[in-house]
Write a structure and sequence with these properties.
Layout: H1 21-32, H2 36-43, H3 50-56, E1 68-76, E2 79-86, H4 92-101, E3 109-112, E4 116-124, H5 129-138, H6 140-150, H7 152-156, E5 160-171, E6 174-184, H8 191-209, E7 212-219, E8 226-233, H9 241-256, H10 258-278, H11 283-294, E9 304-308, E10 314-321, H12 335-344, H13 349-372, H14 376-391, H15 398-408, H16 414-426
Antiparallel strand pairs: 1-2, 3-8, 4-6, 4-7, 5-6, 8-10, 9-10
The structure holds nicotinamide-adenine-dinucleotide.
């Protein structure tokens, strides 16, 4: 097979998936014309066993290391917690530490609505959708038994089928009959668990509805698995009433405007996705659920709320779906995820979700406070300057020196960094 770098390169590589990571890497290197240093870098799998990496996803050639930082100062439901966060973005961990420090005395209080996941079974071409809905609802006991039989382990742990819903959806091709299986998945995120149940039920639902069944898969809008957190920042601890009012105004902007809400919620997800990733959970599942929940009224809005309480303090809260687990997916097999879960000391998925909600609120508080006071750039700049210094070629001690000079000159730019680096090297 000829895949040498050049104009006749082909991405059709038969049997690529059957090769070892190293063999695949060599082919990719030839295709892309990678140099030796790039190949050696990709071949170094760091602290993830290549055999495990190769089992987690397909066509593996390497791993991507993301820093894991730890948020301090977090007190959640009266208990001090150190929170590992995996992110490539500067200022995210610091934001959580700062917000938590300003409310450490009382900390965060959290709750959840349950561990219930939803699986959907889509039936189409149903002649009498309203009748079909009732026929399916009549089968509740049969459906419960079939779902529970799919997962005796889950049932033995207190989980399993909990509820049944049948919704009628008007679509251009007719009314769809959509059955929701509502399942307590305990300490699992539950995607595979509920997908298996939906799959099992599909032929019966086709028969009961008289239609044809197509999709059988969970919904990531896990609105029966909500996690909530709240905290009260004393006005005096956060710089006074003007800062408090600025934060409320920033929240009201997000609540009223989807353009602002998208960025507001992105900041929340900076914190949430970092803990979700550090614990080996599915960031995309959580993000999809969060944004769908933010749009549940038909208009996309803020996942948090901020009010001034009767004592004049800042009362803040967050509520969002958090389908995370302690087993299943990478949570149980990725050694970094296992170590991060050990740092958190969590023994239930519910506790993990509560901690993650508190982190989301902390993150958001810091972002709004920065925006409402000094502006976001100031805090970001010191770390951003370091990235720019590295991009300009600074190494070792040069990084801090160049970054400091960039901030002093209020000009954190690549072209300036290159000049400053020359100065530093010439001095
Ligand atoms: P899983 O199927 O690997 O593990 C869940 C099973 O573990 C349960 O069904 C149960 O039999 C067993 N179990 C043992 N101890 C348990 C306990 N204490 N609590 C609960 N169950 C216990 O994992 P899963 O959570 O069903 O699926 C998660 C994976 O599915 C993730 O990797 C996710 O990325 C992936 N996924 C996601 C989507 C989506 O979000 N749309 C779709 C498909 C797959």
């Amino acid at each position: 097979m000829n895949i040498a770098a050049g104009s006749n390169r082909s991405s059709r590589i038969a049997g690529f998936h059957k090769l070892s990571p190293r063999e695949r890497l060599d082919l990719v290197a030839a295709f892309a014309g990678l140099d030796e240093a790039q190949v050696a870098h990709l071949a170094n799998m760091g602290n993830l066993d290549p055999v495990l990496a190769d089992k987690l996803i397909e066509n593996v050639i390497g791993t991507m290391n993301i820093p894991v930082g730890v948020a301090t100062n977090m007190k959640i439901d009266g208990e001090d917690v150190l929170v590992p966060m995996a992110t490539e973005e500067s200022s995210v961990v610091a934001a959580v530490c700062n917000a938590a420090k300003q409310v450490y005395e009382t900390g965060f209080l959290t709750s959840v609505s349950g561990n219930l996941m939803i699986a959907q079974v889509q039936a189409v071409e149903v002649a009498d959708p309203a009748g079909a809905r009732i026929r399916i609802l009549e089968k509740r006991d049969e459906i419960k038994a079939a779902c529970d039989a799919c997962d005796p382990v889950l049932v033995s742990l207190g989980g399993g089928f909990r509820d049944l819903e049948v919704r009628l959806l008007d679509t251009p091709s007719g009314t769809m009959v959509v059955t929701h299986l509502i399942v307590d998945t305990r300490d699992a995120m539950g995607a595979n668990a509920v997908n298996t149940m939906a799959e099992k039920l599909a032929p019966s639902i086709a028969a009961w509805s008289g239609g044809r069944v197509y999709l059988r898969i969970l919904s990531n809008l896990a609105d029966r698995r909500l996690a909530r957190a709240r905290a009260v920042w004393k006005a005096a601890d956060i710089g006074g009433e003007a800062v408090r009012d600025g934060i409320v105004s920033a929240y009201e902007f997000a609540a009223a405007d989807p353009y602002r809400a998208a960025t507001h919620n992105k900041g929340i997800m900076n914190g949430i996705s970092a803990v979700v990733l550090a614990t080996g959970n599915d960031t995309r599942a959580v993000e999809a659920g969060a944004h769908a929940y933010a749009a549940r009224s038909g208009r996309y809005t803020s996942l948090t709320t901020y009010e001034v309480d009767k004592d004049g303090n800042l009362s803040a809260s967050i509520e969002l779906p958090l389908a995370v687990g302690l087993i299943g997916g990478a949570t149980k097999v990725h050694p970094t995820a296992r170590a991060c879960l050990a740092i958190l000391g969590v023994t239930t998925a519910e506790r993990l979700a509560r901690i993650i909600a508190a982190v989301g609120l902390a993150q958001n508080f810091s972002a709004l406070k920065a925006l409402a006071t000094t502006g976001i750039q100031k805090g970001h700049m010191a770390l951003h300057a370091q990235n720019i210094a590295m991009m300009a070629g600074a190494v070792g001690e040069e990084i801090d020196r160049v970054a400091r000079l960039l901030v002093e000159r209020a000009s954190v730019r690549m072209d300036v960094a290159q000049k400053v680096l020359e100065e530093v090297r010439g001095s």
